[in-house]
Design goal:
This protein is mostly beta strands. It has one domain (8-58). 11% of the residues lie in helices and 44% in strands. It contains 1 helix and 5 strands; from the N terminus they run E-E-E-E-H-E. The chain has one helix at residues 46-52, and strands at 8-11, 21-26, 30-35, 41-45, 53-58. The chain has a 5-stranded antiparallel β-sheet with strand order 4-3-2-1-5, with helices on one face.
């Protein structure tokens, strides 16, 4: 999957605040995501994150 820093992801599962959209802050073995609802930052293993992505909403070029 081609995910870049700055992309907005729509996930299958929601954050506890209720938002399903996250912005990518870092890409590597882990993804660092920022919740668009509350601003909380989380580190998720790449495999788990790619499995839970429903779609990429805003793609940065």
């Amino acid at each position: 999957m081609d995910i870049r820093v700055g992309d907005t992801l729509f996930m299958k599962k929601q954050h506890p605040c209720g938002s399903k959209t996250f912005t990518v802050l870092r890409v590597g073995m882990d993804f660092k995501l920022k919740c668009d609802g509350c601003g909380h930052e989380v580190l998720i293993p790449r495999k788990k994150c790619e499995k839970n992505i429903k779609s990429v909403l805003n793609r940065k070029i």
